[in-house]
Design a protein that fits this description.
The structure holds two protein chains of two kinds.
Chain A: E1 23-24, E2 32-35, E3 45-46, E4 53-54, E5 59-62, E6 71-72, E7 77-86, E8 92-99, H1 121-130, H2 143-146, E9 157-162, H3 171-178, H4 180-194, E10 198-204, H5 208-224, E11 238-242, H6 251-259, E12 274-278, H7 279-291, E13 297-303, E14 311-316, H8 325-328, E15 335-340, E16 347-348, E17 362-367, H9 384-388, H10 395-403, H11 407-412, H12 423-427, H13 434-445
Helix pairs in contact in A: 1-4, 3-5, 4-7, 10-13
Chain B: H1 19-41, H2 43-66, H3 78-88, H4 97-108, H5 124-135, H6 137-140, H7 158-163, H8 175-180, H9 192-204, H10 211-227, H11 238-243, H12 247-254, H13 265-285, H14 292-309
Helix pairs in contact in B: 1-2, 1-3, 1-9, 2-3, 2-4, 3-4, 3-5, 4-5, 5-14, 9-12, 10-12, 10-13, 13-14
The chains are: A alpha/beta, B mainly alpha.
């Protein structure tokens, strides 16, 4: 059973470019640039200095404050610089540069497999925090914070989010195929930490192979399952095949679709007893808990019609995009736009000298023909943006308010609720960059 | 390479549908009705249509030049559509200066003085029609019976006959005749089947939604059934009043004009019902036999108010 959410759009997905490509092993670049702020919240604090030698997985920056995440060395080598570097979302962030000197062992030494059943949940949270795990769906919220709701907001349901509704991206799809069992174990850990009673795995129907893989794994597990209440694997997850629609993978929407619960405006999923986690996050939690492996690499998709060999690949954090040309074989045609993240919510890049960080789920290259160069024309009030907005705003009216600098009215019309999915700007036939106006307006209402 | 990159805020992909495509799609959807009109009333209808379109495009170009705007915008299809719709709202035997005058007024006063596309309060084609109706009422009410033989003065529209108290069947007009357009009326309004074909295309392509047309037509049908019968309440001929006038053309192609109708689905329903009520009231109580164009114009004027009170509810807003 699945419910519906209002609004949404149906962009062409172009997922077949890379959906059948195995996730490649990560390679060791000649340097990595590790931004100290790869997450939502306060930046991490460096605990190393220039000249130090580090091994793979060593802590290089510790969290500073409750909402913050640790950063770990993604390659072994020498710290050559700590300086400000541009990141994928166009901020300049203090970053640690590591360069290998040659001869180092670049493999992570996993801690021996441990029996995790007797571990209490507080310890799990500590392990996840120490591993620097953040939400890998894009927002980069520290995972341990998300998994420790206050006592007055009990969470009864966990949703494993495999919707991957952004066009082009396929890394979550591949991860679900190649690490099915590990992801399910990650989900079990999340369920145990939260003491949840229900778990759902939500996958869009354009990833049928992932749905089958999950179904099979769940069947297998239920044969083997001997766990008692409170132990790992005591909750059997339900698999949900979602109809395709963007932005289905957004937390509020996926909760509405599966549980018909509506997260209050300005609220969090835990307000309706729910937590949604990306499949990549679940995998990172599994690795952290079982092997003590910190989040120093992630799966990303590098794709686009002009990319010679679209790929899914593991990549060490901080790898410069410009060092990755060999991975995807260069271009068949000159790209005009480079996007980190998906084409709907991702960030366009000024150059390829940008490091991959925890929040980058993919790199999409678009050619001149594929990017939209239409001039903004006047609103014809067709109402398509109103129909597309998943949270029931009237983007065209807000656009006029922002243009007229009437920010108090923009605020009273709910502009703060916008989470910038971009559906309005995608659908606008007048090609008005509605999201630009939304972002500008949202920034402005902070000051009133 | 880096200096050649395009950097902008997302989304980085856009839907293919553009304003231009929508305008031309609506024009395309209107073609069957026009072709039918020409076949039914003769070649003069074609000249009226062409004159209306040419005058609209020329006026648009002139006005854009006067306002120092990009004259290329004339090909966005909106002027062509206005000219076409205006011509469709004229009697088949109109002298050619009528569509020219109407289109000029529609574009210049109905649209460009408000600031051009997207800023007009009233449907431009209907503004043009209202202008002609007030200025040259005789020409606007001189009808022609179907057929290529010109007998301009003898015709009358079924609604006018009905208003005069004549039974329609007396004139030998059946529902089927109303459906295929074998009756007196404006060029583009008579052939209901052709209009419905065009409307179906627009609905399937999602260029228009069902909200306005269905509520509009349903309101007229119900009100006519309830109050327009000769034998008392609930004896009216709903089908006749739906098919006989300009309702189908108005409901699917004029009331749905984006610029002058409400934004939200709820607002559209209110707008459709309002159009329906006004159409019924004008038909029943005014001196005019037909009320579609004035009903839509009046509702156009309160669209901003409807919009103001029909903002959709936010996701997660307190009940």
């Amino acid at each position: 059973m699945q419910y519906r959410f209002r609004g949404g759009v149906h962009p062409l997905t172009f997922k077949s470019l890379a959906s059948d490509k195995l996730i490649k092993r990560s390679f060791i670049p000649k340097r990595v640039v590790l931004p100290l702020s790869q997450h939502t919240g306060s930046p991490a604090q460096a605990v190393v200095s220039v000249g130090d030698r580090v091994n793979v997985g060593d802590l290089v920056a510790k969290p500073s404050g409750r909402i913050s995440a640790a950063v770990h060395a993604s390659i072994a080598g020498k710290i050559t610089k700590i300086a400000y570097f541009p990141t994928y979302n166009q901020a300049r962030v203090l970053s640690i540069v590591i360069e290998p000197e040659g001869g180092e062992d670049q493999d992570f030494k996993p801690k021996p497999d441990r029996n995790i059943d007797p571990i209490p949940k507080e310890e799990f949270l500590g392990i996840i925090r120490d591993a620097g795990v953040v939400g890998l769906g894009g927002a980069g919220f520290p995972a341990d914070v998300k998994l420790s709701p206050p006592a007055n907001k009990p969470v009864d349901t966990v949703i494993l989010n495999g919707a991957e509704c952004e066009p082009y991206l396929t890394c979550d799809h591949r991860l679900m195929l190649e690490k099915t069992q590990e992801i399910l174990t990650g989900l079990d850990i999340i369920v145990k930490i939260l003491g949840a009673k229900h778990a759902y795995i939500a996958i869009e129907k354009n990833k049928l192979s992932a749905i089958y893989a999950m179904e099979k794994a769940l069947k297998l597990n239920s044969l083997e399952r001997r766990a008692g209440p409170g132990r790992l694997g005591s909750v059997k997850p339900k698999l949900i095949a979602l109809d395709e629609k963007y932005p289905q993978g957004a937390e509020k929407q996926i909760i509405k679709v599966i549980l018909n619960r509506i997260v209050p405006a300005g609220g969090l999923p835990m307000d309706v007893g729910c937590v949604a986690n990306n499949v990549g996050t679940a995998y990172a939690i599994y690795e952290a808990v079982y092997f003590g492996k910190p989040l120093f690499e992630r799966a990303i998709t590098i794709t686009g019609s002009c990319v010679r060999e679209p790929v899914n690949t593991w990549v060490r954090m901080g790898t410069m995009l410009s060092d990755m040309k060999d991975i995807f074989g260069g271009f068949t045609k000159e790209p005009k736009k480079i996007i980190m993240g998906g084409p709907m919510m991702g960030f366009a890049q000024y150059s390829m000298d940008t490091p991959i960080s925890k929040g980058v789920s993919g790199v999409v290259f678009l050619t001149e023909e594929e990017i939209d160069t239409h001039k903004e024309s006047v609103c014809i009030r067709c109402g398509r943006c109103v129909d597309a907005c998943p949270i029931g705003l009237v983007p065209t009216t807000l656009m006029y308010r922002v243009k007229g600098e009437n920010f108090p009215e923009a605020k009273s019309l709910g502009i703060a609720n916008c989470y910038e999915c971009g559906a309005c700007a995608y659908i606008c036939p007048a090609k008005i960059p509605l999201l630009d106006y939304m972002k500008f307006g949202k920034a402005k209402i902070q000051t009133i | 390479m880096s200096e050649a990159l395009v950097v902008s805020i997302g989304p980085h992909i856009k839907d293919k549908v553009s304003t231009k495509r929508i305008m031309w799609a609506v024009t395309f959807a209107l073609l069957p009705a026009g072709i039918a009109g020409v076949f039914i009333f003769g070649i003069n209808s074609l000249f009226v249509i062409i004159a209306g379109i040419v005058a609209a495009v020329v006026t648009e170009a002139l006005m854009l030049a006067v306002r120092k705007k990009d004259i290329g915008a004339v090909w966005d299809g909106s002027a062509v559509l206005t000219g076409l719709l205006l011509a469709y709202n004229l009697p088949p035997q109109s002298p050619l200066w009528m569509p020219v005058a109407g289109s000029f007024f529609a574009i210049a006063i109905g649209k460009q003085v408000f600031g051009g596309l997207g800023h007009n309060i009233f449907n431009p084609a209907l503004v043009g029609r209202a202008f002609l109706m007030i200025s040259w009422p005789v020409y606007m009410t001189t009808w022609q019976n179907p057929g290529w033989k010109v007998d301009a003065v003898t015709g009358a529209t079924p609604l006018a006959l009905c208003k005069e108290g004549q039974a329609i069947v007396m004139k030998g007009v059946s529902y089927w005749d109303l459906f295929i357009g074998q009756r007196g009326g404006c060029i583009g309004e008579v052939c209901v089947i052709a209009l419905l074909a065009g409307a179906a295309y627009l609905l399937v392509k999602k260029y228009i939604t069902w909200h306005i047309p269905s509520t509009y037509i349903a309101t007229v049908a119900v009100m006519s059934w309830a109050f327009n019968g000769k034998a008392g309440l609930f004896t009216g001929d709903a089908l006749f009043f739906t098919l006989a006038g300009g309702l189908i053309l108005g409901a699917f192609f004029m009331a749905t004009d984006y610029v002058t109708s409400p934004l939200s689905p709820r607002g559209k329903v209110i707008f459709g019902v309002g159009c329906g009520l006004l159409t019924f009231l004008i038909r029943k109580f005014s001196g005019y036999p037909e009320g579609v164009s004035y009903a839509i114009l009046i509702m156009n004027s309160i669209t901003p108010i409807i919009d103001r009170y029909t903002f959709p509810k936010w996701f997660g807003a307190p009940r």
